[in-house]
Amino acid sequence: MLAITTKAWDARFKREGKIFEEPHEDLPLVVASLREKGARIVLDLGSGSGRHLVFLAKNGFSVFGLDNSRAGIDIAEKWLKSEWLSADLCMQEMTEELPYEDNFFDAVISVQVMHHARADVIKKIIKELERVLKKGGIIFITVPKERNQGKEFMQIEPRTFVPLDGPEKGLPHHYFTRGELRKFFGSFSITDIHLDSNDHYCLSGFKG
Ligand SMILES: C[S@@+](CC[C@H](N)C(=O)[O-])C[C@H]1O[C@@H](n2cnc3c(N)ncnc32)[C@H](O)[C@@H]1O
Fold it and tell me: Which protein residue's CA is at the shortest distance from atom 26 of ligand 1?
């Protein structure tokens, strides 16, 4: 039987610790663009073990992180503390209403997180991001292009797969096309979509 979970990363962080140490390759450019636009308050949706929280806090932003992994949040908290930095962290499902007021953030980043749901749920998450972002607020989102998890998998809807083995067993993975990304984020003004060196789509834009 197919057991779907949203918590596969919790076990990974418990087992493997930080996993990611360096920020995504585009983050220096993202930070430059945030500075240029005068952004101050930034949400990292699916903040994991904290590499972007640390990077953003070091760069002087007021940083919020949300993730459903207790282990990830704990590692991030320790990491921030060890560098004399801080962030407002929340352990929660990204699929629930986000615990922030309307028009609160200047920017939301989310690296390799939003594909972990079915298409209709992803659409709901995008609506929530729109709600919590200020007008003109910036988004930087990355998602994988190609199926990259599990030798065995089950397809549960068009372009959504659940690996039946490997470290992300049971966790849904939706694989976007460029056109679908444009459609899903259609309420935003998209300024760029490109592929990074890992063949992940990187979408930049702002709330118009
Ligand atoms: C590939 S990791 C990326 C972590 C982080 N963004 C980074 O780049 O280092 C995916 C992250 O998404 C989180 N995640 C997956 N499903 C989630 C959900 N339903 N709600 C909140 N976080 C989720 C995982 O716990 C994990 O931290």
Answer: 48
DSSP string, 138-192: EEEEEEESS--S-SSEEEEETTEEEESSSTTTT--EE---HHHHHHHTTTEEEEE
Q: How many angstroms separate the alpha carbon of residue 50 from the centre of ligand 1? A: 10
Please report the atom of ligand 1 found closest to the CA of residue 10: 25
Measured in whole angstroms, the distance separating CA 82 from the mean position of its chain's CA atoms is 23
Domains of the chain: 8-207 (3.40.50.150)
- d(Cα 43, Cα 139) in Å, to the nearest integer? 10
Residues 17-55: tens digit of each pLDDT: 999 999 999 999 999 999 999 999 999 999 999 999 999
